[in-house]
Amino acid sequence: MRAGTIGTVIEYYDFGLYGYTATVLARVFFSDENPTTALLSSLIVFGVAFFMRPLGGVVFGHIGDRFGRKHALALTIIGMCAATFLIGILPGYGAIGIAAPVLLLLARLVQGVCAGGELGGAAAYIAESSPENRRGFLTSMTQLGSMVGLVGASLIVAVVTWAVPVDQLDSWGWRIPFLVALPLGLVGLYIRYRLADSPAFQAMSKTEKVVSTPLLTVVKRHRAGVLKVIGINVLAAPGYYIAFVYSSIFLQGQGGYSTSAATWMTTISLLVATGVIPVAALVCDRVGRKPVLMAGSVGFAVLAFPAFLFMQSDTPAVAILGQLMLAICEAVMMGAMLATLVELFPATVRYTGIALGFNLAHAVFGGTAPYVSAWLISTTGSAMAPAWTVIAVALVAIATILTLEETSRKPLRLV
User: Fold this and answer.
1) Which of 66, 93, 209, 318 has CA 20 to 30 A from 40's CA?
2) What's the CA dihedral at 141, 189, 15, 309 to 10 degrees?
3) What is the CA radius of gyration of the chain?
4) What's the start-to-end Cα distance of the chain, in Å?
5) Which is higher by pLDDT, 291 or 24?
6) How far apart are CA 303 and CA 327, in angstroms?
7) CA angle 158, 160, 165 (to 5 degrees)
8) CA proximity to 142, closest of 345, 280, 335
9) Vertex 352 angle, CA 274 and 368, to 5°
10) CB atoms within 10 A of CB 168
11) How much is the pTM?
């Protein structure tokens, strides 16, 4: 469990850095003639990486289901940390012109592929090594790891933006968090390299039940499971990036807060959400997956509008309250999410099934959420526009959750 969680911490530290430095990267890597255009361009690069996640899910899912979870998880961390370190040493637009955003995009695409293979694999590994009555709690440690990674990214960006003068922040200060990825990656690789594979995969290997084409098997036999994964993540994916990434941008653009202040406020929300996840997971082990997922989804539908209204307040406590509304709803869903997903598929295609559905949803609805939110505000002139999109996808998730069979405390399927 520790190896899976620590790896996810590092992966999401790397992946989240871009969102927390988006306003600085917009100035460094894009022409500064129009700040709004530069920010939108920066967010497009953020979102495009998500369209590589389904490819990563297929590639690493094949490796994980065919050759073992540990091999796939080791490869994801190598690629992610290398790409993050590369971003930290790239020259900016002022030095090499259009080549700067092109190279930035290429590095983000590599990050997207690697991120696509991370969460599903870590969840499958931990679930297959967990007792039935604690599966929800233990798989939530992967989600907790992603949050700790984001907290780490948010904290280091907050410290750097506070300590480094603005003119030096744009020239070299922003690079510090990205360069930290290299030593973190080496630690994570060492930990994952020493993993033994999950009991379920070992059992499949001994009984020769490993499938040769996991993706084909998923498409033929487990389409309903993939659609349910997508239906839940229609909300959970954009909810994650709106609550924990875009909200910082929103606080700056609509609330009038500085980059440093918005980052510290986001860090508070991340810390609260990190505490909520294991509590929600314990509840889902006791009362079931569906009630917990439903609570988070209904919360989004009811609280999205007041949350965005509060985040425009010039009173920090009120703005943080708005941010917390979104963060807690997402954290509640995260507590039961991975246990639900791993229980939808047999071990033979578990890695691929989760990764495919999860990453398709994150590509279409998650990575685009910050850009779509900023675009809607720019186009409509209303800062409340993103709230309506959250409400719409929450209704889709609620409908999907109603179709789920309760699977808590049941044995995981091997085939």
Assistant:
1) 318
2) 20
3) 20
4) 23
5) 291
6) 11
7) 115
8) 335
9) 55
10) 11
11) 0.84
Q: In terms of Cα–Cα distance, which of 84, 239, 241 is closest to 150? A: 241
> Can you list the domains of the chain with their CATH numbers?
2-402 (1.20.1250.20)
Q: Using CA atoms, how far apart are residues 146 and 151, in angstroms rounded to an integer?
A: 9
CA dist., res. 236 & res. 159, Å (int): 29
pLDDT tens column, 270-297: 889 999 999 999 999 999 999 999 999 9
Q: Which amino acid is at 165?
A: P
**Contact between residue 157 and residue 17 where contact means Cβ atoms under 8 Å apart:** yes
CA distance 174 to 105: 17
State the chain's mean pLDDT as an integer: 89
Cα separation, 112 vs 22, whole angstroms: 16
Q: How sure is the predictor about 136, in pLDDT bands with cuts at 50, 70 and 90?
A: very high
Q: Which amino acid is at 247?
A: S
| Dist CA 104 CA 70 (whole Å) | 29
188, exposed or middle or buried, with CB in 10 Å at 0-12, 13-18, 19+? buried
Distances (CA, A) of 55 to 10, 357, 360: 21, 11, 9
Q: Give the number of other Cβ atoms within 10 Å of residue 228's Cβ.
A: 20
CA 76 to each of CA 10, 46, 70, 138, 289: distance values in angstroms, whole numbers, following the listed order: 11, 19, 10, 21, 28
Neighbouring CB atoms inside 10 A of 396's CB total 16
Q: What is the pLDDT of residues 195-243, one digit of tens each?
A: 778 888 888 877 777 888 999 999 999 999 999 999 999 999 999 989 9
Matching residue, tokens 């949803």:
361
Residue with tokens 């099934």: 353
